[in-house]
Amino acid sequence: MSNWYEKINLKTAHILEQIKAHSFIQELMAGTLPKDIFYFYINQDAIYLSEYKKILAQIGIKCLDENDTQFFLNAATGIINVENALHQNFLNQKTITNEASITCELYISYLSRMAHTKSLEEGLAAVLPCFTIYQQIGDYILANQTNKNNNPYQDWINTYGGEAFANSVKSAIEITNKHTIKASHESINNMNKAFEKASKLEWMFWDSAYNKESWKI
């Protein structure tokens, strides 16, 4: 099933549309998102990425093709370094926390479980939305915003709407598609479930940031 991603992307298109319509994304695009909400998001994203790079490395270790392994190891360092630079830029001298929000903890735990206890195919499907959805959101904002010269969050927008990130996303999709060619029907179903659940967690991550989610007890 070499066009697996195209099919699952269509199947989960409603989730992407809900992400685009979320107040966090709309206000980010308009440049009106309250700074305290954006800082909360960047702080939680930094916590998430500190674990996500380890998860990508684990996926790479499980790959049999050395080129695939190298891609994920590079992704765990190169892409994350770019994002870390953004975090330092936006969080510089801001009060930060090392405690993950409920949703951040849930997302990290889910991806870690998929990478460490499930098949490589399921792990690939689970980590893919963090690549694809961010590119789609970055491209969506760049195509629809009218304030590129005065949006306080333009550096963030440009990172995910840029060519370098698009190339990484393309490679991640190609590797995942390759692993579906000989996959069983059961494996494909499990991949579909993993991609859909991770996509929902992407929406939940932005929603939790917008509401500055806190532990209830």
Short description:
The longest helix has 28 residues, at 35-62. Helices cover 78% and strands 0% of the residues.
Explain what you see.
The chain has 217 residues and is mainly α. Helix content is 78%, strand content 0%. The protein contains ten helices and no strands. The longest helix is centred in the first third of the chain and has 28 residues, at 35-62.
Which class best fits the helix and strand makeup?
Answer: mainly alpha
Beta fraction: under 5%
Q: If you compute it from the alpha carbons, what radius of gyration comes out, rounded to the nearest whole angstrom?
A: 17 Å
H/E element order = HHHHHHHHHH
Contiguous uncertain segments of 5+ residues: none
Count of helix runs: 10
The beta-strand count equals 0
Question: Main beta sheet: strand number and arrangement?
Answer: none
Helix percent band: over 70%
State the shape: globular
Mean pLDDT over the residues? 93
Distance between the termini: 46 Å
Task: Note the topology.
Blueprint: H1 4-11, H2 13-21, H3 23-30, H4 35-62, H5 66-91, H6 102-117, H7 120-144, H8 154-161, H9 163-178, H10 185-210
Helix pairs in contact: 2-10, 4-5, 4-6, 4-7, 4-10, 5-9, 6-7, 6-10, 7-8, 7-9, 7-10
